[in-house]
Amino acid sequence: MDKTGVASLVIGILLLALGGWGVWVYFPQVVFFVQGVIGIIAIIFGIFLVIFGVLMIKE
Questions:
Q1: pLDDT digits over 26-50, tens only?
Q2: How far apart are CA 16 and CA 11, in angstroms?
């Protein structure tokens, strides 16, 4: 392993630790964020289904 690999490994472990700490400390905000992301994904998926349905009806 070269220096870049070791540096990437150390930084990755550090970011994982900081991310885990952030999720633990700000858990209610994390839940709201995940709920918001699920809602946005549902809206986008619904828009694509509407567009797909309109295109299928036109044929």
A1: 999 999 999 999 999 999 999 999 9
A2: 9
- The DSSP letter of residue 2 is -
How far, in Å, CA of 24 to CA of 21, rounded? 5
Buried b (16+ CB within 10 A) or exposed e, 13-47: eeeeeeeeeeeeeeeeeeeeeeeeeeeeeeeeeee
Q: What is the average pLDDT score of the chain?
A: 93
Cα–Cα distance list, 52 to 18, 40, 41, 44 (Å): 42, 18, 16, 12
Half-sphere exposure of 35 (CA within 13 A, CB side): 6
